[in-house]
Amino acid sequence: MICYYCHEAMQEEVDIVNLFKKRAPLCDGCRDALSRWRAGKRCGFCHRLMQTDETVCLDCRFLSSRFRPPESITCLLDYHGAVKMLFHRYKFTGDCALAEVVAMFLDSRFREYDVIIPIPISKARMEERGYDQTTMVLEAKGVAYSPFLETKTRSRQSGLGKAERARRENPFLLNCRREDLEGKRILLVDDIYTTGMTVHQAMEKLYTFFPGIIDVLTFSKA
Fold first, then answer.
1. Is residue 11 a part of any domain in this protein?
2. Would 157 be classed as within a structural domain?
């Protein structure tokens, strides 16, 4: 079998134990490279790499002054080096097989939630890319999800400051009934957590239907 990331052949003994087992899409070396996190001081909530002289996370302080926060944020991978290249290939070169690689790092936490909601991409982005990078990973893991959020076509936010992003109209719409969310344990899933603006705007909409709690899971922290 070929490693999905480095495309090198993987040696594996075939015996009665692993004959019918699904093969891992990564070699040990690539799995180790993708699992590494940069050393340094990090925010205990959003996992942002902080300067040594920072006493509070400026991103979290800014967001908490404008939005109701989630109960928790979990980030699976550190967006640098091999991980950064992984997502570039997955999102921008059409290498859909890498959804299996990202799915490798998901665990069984999904069973704790009543509703799993992915952050959607716009129709224009879907037409351009041909697939939704977040839901494809969930499907690769066999996780059932609810498409309760829709998004309007929006311009890219890279290069904008936090305040300017916050002033823009919330791009999300709800596609569900109040009873679908009220009192429920919700897991909101996104691919990459950068400033946190996207997931907080999505939660702003979800909170209008009074869920019990909202936790956030992102595949990578930039």
1. no
2. yes
CATH of the domain at 154: 3.40.50
Number of domains making up the chain: 1
Asked whether residue 39 is assigned to any structural domain, the reply reads: no
Give SS3 for 16. coil
Q: Taking 90 as the threshold, does the pLDDT of residue 171 lie above it?
A: yes
Q: How far is CA 198 from CA 50, 65, 70, 202, in A?
A: 20, 15, 13, 6
Count Cβ neighbours within 10 Å for each residue of 146-174 and write b for 16 or more, e otherwise. Answer: bebbebeeeeebeeeebeeebeeeebbeb
Amino acid found at 221: K
> What is the pLDDT at residue 150?
95
In Å, what is the CA distance from 162 to each residue of 153, 188, 192, 200? Answer: 20, 21, 16, 12
Does residue 35 register a pLDDT over 80?
Answer: yes
User: pLDDT (tens digit, 9 = 90+) per residue, 109-121?
Assistant: 888 999 999 999 9
Tokens for 41, please give them.
Answer: 């001081």
Cβ(129)–Cβ(121) below 8 Å: yes
pLDDT of 8 reads: 92
Owning domain of residue 99: 66-221
- 172 domain-assigned: yes
Segment 64-68 mean pLDDT: 95
